[in-house]
Amino acid sequence: MTITSPHLGSSEAWTDAKLLFALEEVVEKELNRHLKVTKDWMPHEYVPWSDGRNFPGFFEDGEAWDPEQSKVTDIGKIALVVNLLTEDNLPSYHHEIASLFGRNGAWGTWVHRWTAEEGRHGIVMRDYLLASRAVDPDKLEAFRMQHMSEGFESDNRHSMLHSVAYVAFQELATRISHRNTGHQSGDPVCDRMLARIAQDENLHMVFYRNLLGSAFELAPDLTMQAVRDVVVNFRMPGHGMPGFERMAAQMAIGGVYNLRIHHDDVLSPVIRFLKIMDIDGLGPEGQKAQEELGLFMNGLDSEARKFDERLAARAARIAARKG
Fold this sequence. Notes:
Elements lengths: L2 E2 L11 H7 L1 H14 L36 H15 L1 H12 L3 H27 L5 H13 L10 H26 L2 H31 L1 H13 L11 H10 L5 H15 L5 E2 L3 H39 L1
Parallel strand pairs: 1-2
Helix pairs in contact: 2-5, 2-8, 3-5, 3-7, 3-10, 4-5, 5-8, 7-8, 7-9, 7-11, 8-9, 9-12, 11-12
């Protein structure tokens, strides 16, 4: 099916401020829908408190952490640390979206609601990691201090439209990362906790995806350019944490998040749902962005295929050595 949109997307016709105002009604609608379908939950109900015991320090009976105490797989430990450190930067994320979307009206209500829901994720993940002794608590705190002390700036902070486009994909990427981490963790308690977090992330993705769809109706050229920019330059929000490249590579090999998952499970579903490649009636800049988006997705698919082949060859070599 072809979507035809009027040519309303020139920079002369739309500014961030005008789009922000024009989308306010959509934000209110999506906020009301979100509040009807979301369910509040208690982070403490997902933590195995009975597994917990004192660490060394002020308590005389404190027991030092030992790797043997962890029930989580090696790849699970890496992914959990990456996911939690990402969540730790919530104050920076709140600052950036509050600066872009505002703190008043429906936009402001959403910003605060989103922040409150995201806050649960860091709470429950840290409590789980400490109570279950899944990772070294001293190293975890040192990583947190280093990561947050360096600050965070989004690649898309200069444009409301770019920010909306980014989070439409990023919320889905986070959902997939949490869900796959649970599957790979080796601990049913961890899997259940991350499945609950993933439900929140999916609802956040739906909010932003629907908002992005409305932006296409209002300003198709500008929105297409924003999507092109975001997809081509996409980075996860935790890219600035210490050792991220190494940990990301391990997560890719471990099947938590890699090029194939990024193409098939994150970018493609949003592009397909919004029928972005079928939008017609674009101006020259919008059409150019659409074509470049298509070329990038084809190239990413080829790169993912090469990654799959390397991963299969690696698995075959490991199997041969074990045999």
